[in-house]
Amino acid sequence: MKVMLGISGGVDSSVAALLLQQAGHEVEGLFMQNWEEDERSGPCTTDADRKDAVAVCGRLGIPFHARNFAAEYWDGVFAHFLDEYRAGRTPNPDVLCNREIKFKTFLHEAQALGAEKIATGHYARVDRRDGRYRLLRAVDAAKDQSYFLHALGQQQLSATLFPLGGIEKPRVRELAREAALPTHAKKDSTGICFIGERDFRSFLAQYIPARPGEMRTPEGERIGEHQGVMYYTLGQRNGLGIGGRHGASGEAWFVVGKNVASNVLYVAQGGENHWLHSHRLETETPSWVAGEAPAPHFRCTARTRYRQLDQACEVTVHADRLEVRFDEPQRAVTPGQSVVLYDGEACLGGAVIAATDATYGGLPPLLPS
């Protein structure tokens, strides 16, 4: 079977290529350039990554392709990224990149090149049960990336292979060394490529100018000034610039709410203060791996951020949204991020968080507008 691998120049996709080849597939590699460097974004690692991808393909003797998807990435991912920050929310570009670029644009290009399936170096698994494909957690729980893949449906999963889903990361490094792959010692990439090695707020300010405003406690006391509510996220501690205050407890200050309309940033002391917690959230239109919800109302577990431990909850499915009620209060549930639902090892789907319930009194920016 002809398989087109999204080869990134990292160790994971390199070993994915090796495993596909060992399994007897006709493997080709396609390198995706998703960002055009400019003076605003600063340096990105695209050129170095492409050279590494070429070297891996050369080592394995597989054809190499390269495509520039920067325009598609800008329209399908980055423009939305900026719009969300302008609205005071905190988006997750990895989820959107998977849906719009890696499993849409790349999939279409791979099929145009004659591939029967695509593959990536993601840590996740796919199987088929009762005529439907399932997205499963990776064997390596510490590397599992099903959270970022929850928006994939039956069409994408039917055409996708995840060669690394059944092995753990240390073994991936071992396989890379044993095969003398040029990426065997390369560090894993972190963060978002288009930001490069620079301060996130400085990057964002190039596209969304600063708009200073008041920093207040939930009780309304003015205690400082912020540079723009879009630069902060719920639960944030660093970068607030609040020193010691007379009569304060001495505990650290945290962002607990944002009101974009009035340009007010709310902060409170203590990482476990009640303003940061909620029992309920509502979402935008959900995506279901199976193509439909398992039931109008059901229990499952959920994550509201990557690497979070699964949290027990009840889900009510409405026409264009979900209502999720957790058994225990959740800390810093953030609009713009995704809530992802699980039934054991299977990822059911998920949705972008629209708002949280003010279980403990709450603030205006934490409620639906």
UniProtKB/TrEMBL annotation:
Catalysis performed (reactions): S-sulfanyl-L-cysteinyl-[protein] + uridine(34) in tRNA + AH2 + ATP = 2-thiouridine(34) in tRNA + L-cysteinyl-[protein] + A + AMP + diphosphate + H(+)
Annotated ATP binding sites: 6-13, 32, 121
Keywords: ATP-binding, Cytoplasm, Disulfide bond, Nucleotide-binding, RNA-binding, Transferase, tRNA processing, tRNA-binding
Ranges where the tRNA-specific 2-thiouridylase MnmA-like C-terminal domain occurs: 279-353
GO CC aspect terms: cytoplasm
GO biological process, one term: tRNA wobble position uridine thiolation
Region (Interaction with target base in tRNA) location: 92-94
Region of interest (Interaction with tRNA), residue spans: 143-145, 305-306
Subcellular location as annotated: Cytoplasm
Site residues (Interaction with tRNA), renumbered to this chain: 122, 337
Enzyme class at the top of the EC tree: transferase
Active site positions, chain numbering: 97, 193
CDD domains: MnmA_TRMU-like
Positions of transmembrane segments: none
EC number of the protein: 2.8.1.13
Annotated tRNA-specific 2-thiouridylase MnmA-like central domain residues: 202-269
InterPro entries linked: MnmA-like, MnmA-like_C, MnmA-like_central, MnmA-like_central_sf, Rossmann-like_a/b/a_fold
Function in brief: Catalyzes the 2-thiolation of uridine at the wobble position (U34) of tRNA, leading to the formation of s(2)U34.
Family membership: Belongs to the MnmA/TRMU family.
Protein name: tRNA-specific 2-thiouridylase MnmA
